[in-house]
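In this supplementary section we document a worked example of the pipeline. Step one takes a protein sequence of length 341 as its only input; no multiple sequence alignment statistics are reported here. Step two produces a three-dimensional model, which step three serialises into structure tokens for compact storage. The input and output of this example are shown verbatim.
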Amino acid sequence: MSTNVIGNKNIIDVVKYRWIWLILSLILILPGVGAMIYSMVTLPTHTPVKVGIDFTGGTVLQYGVKSDVNNENISKLRNTLAEKNIDSAAIQIINVNNASDVSNPDSKAGIQHIISIRTKFIDEKDEATLSKVATSIKADYPEAEMISITSVGPTLGKELYKNSLVAMGLAFIGIVAYLTMRFRLDYAVIALLSLFHDVLFVVGVFSILGLVYNVEIDSLFITATLTVIGFSVHDTIVVFDRVRENMRFLAKKASFDEIVNASVNQTLARSVNTSLTTLITLLALYFFGGVTTKDFVLAMILGIAIGTYSSIFFASMILAWHRDWEDSKKGKSKPQLEATV
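The serialised model returned by step three reads:
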């Protein structure tokens, strides 16, 4: 265990084991990047993740059923819908944990599953088409009740997708501008790399989930991603701010690597405790909340976990690496200090 320049023992030596953190980051990110590339090639939308009707346009109809749902009935339902000119219907089964997962628990008591049907855009006034869907479902599930119907026009879906990308781009630009003014440009660029690291991980996981479990993202996912970006950059700023403070007093006494190690360990407890309290709340929402918010909460859980990791290990490691590279170009040598206990 190494010691820092202030005289306290370091819990983590970020700089010494930088290759471990780098390899761990690659292990976390590369599978998701591979899934994103595969999705962009194979999906009809050519997007890195499966996108919901918020971005593509279409209609989602949800029916609650009180009996078991099997794959044979779902295949039969899909064929029946196709015979009635309702083509390319994507059918998903949602397990209901309790009656509070539906919009009106009093009238929907006893529902065990929700059959979610996503298809091309259907006008809510098109009673003939809606009747065809209802008749097809009730052929096998007479007790089926409609829970919700959500429609987004194709034009609005494309506009939402474009606006979401613009929002994320503006968030990155704003963060770089702020960090450049508060710190230095290299700090801002490294913080941006850390944010890309976090976003790639979250999007990569959802890309894998989309390929394996047909999970689709919606506008709530963009909200979760923007929230994660804010949380991650806040955590990174805390570490960078401590590095800057320690540089004022220790720049002539210690190497930059030692200052980074000391700064990370000084802020470690705060970062971990803040993230843990947030994760406990999110885990409670994930396991006991409604099914409609599960994907949103999962994105938050993944983002906060990876954001905490990146601010402690990835961003600080890249910062120390960059400064060592700068010093080697200038021909500077690290000060040799005796370790203090």
